Amino acid sequence: MTKINTVGVIAAMQIEIDALKARLENSETVTISGIDYVSGMLHGKKVIAAKCGIGKVFAAICAQTMIIHFAPDCIINTGVAGALNKELHICDIVVGEKTVQHDMDTSPIGDPVGLVSGINVVFFENDKNVADVICKSAEKLGFAHRRGIIACGDQFVADSATKEKIVKNFGADACEMESAAMAQACYINNVPFGVIRAISDGADDGANMDYPTFAKIAAEKGIALTDEFIKNI
Ligand code: ADE
Fold first, then answer.
1. CA 8 to ligand 1 centroid distance, Å
2. pTM value?
3. Could you confirm whether 227 is annotated as catalytic?
4. Ligand 1 pocket: which of 52, 58, 156 to mutate (most atoms <8 Å of CB)?
5. Which of 127, 173, 201, 227 is catalytic?
6. What's the 97 CA to ligand 1 centre distance in angstroms?
7. Which residues, listed in sequence order, are joined to residue 49 by a DSSP beta bridge?
8. Which CATH code is given to the segment(s) 6-232?
């Protein structure tokens, strides 16, 4: 098991990462391709925190750049997600066991839905040690959590038909728009990867109402758990 001295943390939006950036001691910022990478110390570890922007392309650009410029020992994606599993409630945590790109689809030419051609992956397995430490950290904080499959795509899911299709295709527990793109960058570079997502909405017809109401409080839970993970890893 690699010793983790340097942790990269990436989130899509400011509300999902700014409070963590503010906690970094002796911080320095480097801007690359318009993304600010803030590095500094937290709980004796070096942390690089970045807001990548929304969607898979920004997520992959950010993870790849972080790997090349900062060589983190692992990367964590923190943020909010829509619930696909009926047992998940607002602000519950989903700890990624696997991630999948639900909008990747070359099935008309015979591939399984979700397959990333070339590397032949549908589900990107997250690092087991990282996921274990995230779960232990959630227990310490008393946060309701479950390990699960996270489906990622360039789409805010806000209707039952789309939600059911993602569940049927992948058995996913939560949906969002960045994790599996970062997972792909980590996979091709052999960097351990983990996902912490707090539920902000039900990815259904009420999602456009729930999301603005709960995104901030859910994002804060994700940051609190990321901080505890850095302490415990
Ligand atoms: N992030 C938070 N809620 C989401 C949803 N319903 N769809 C996609 N990404 C999300």
1. 22
2. 0.98
3. no
4. 156
5. 201
6. 18
7. 9, 38
8. 3.40.50.1580
CB-ligand 1 contact for 81 (6 Å cutoff): yes
Residue nearest to atom 10 of ligand 1 (CA): 176
Tens-digit pLDDT profile for the chain (233 aa)? 679 999 999 999 999 999 999 999 999 999 999 999 999 999 999 999 999 999 999 999 999 999 999 999 999 999 999 999 999 999 999 999 999 999 999 999 999 999 999 999 999 999 999 999 999 999 999 999 999 999 999 999 999 999 999 999 999 999 999 999 999 999 999 999 999 999 999 999 999 999 999 999 999 999 999 999 999 99
DSSP string, 115-174: -BTTTTBSEEEPPHHHHHHHHHHHHHHT--EEEEEEEE-SS---SHHHHHHHHHHH--SE
What residue type is 122 in one-letter code? V
CA of 122 from ligand 1 middle (Å) equals 20
CA–CA dist 66, 39 (Å, integer): 11
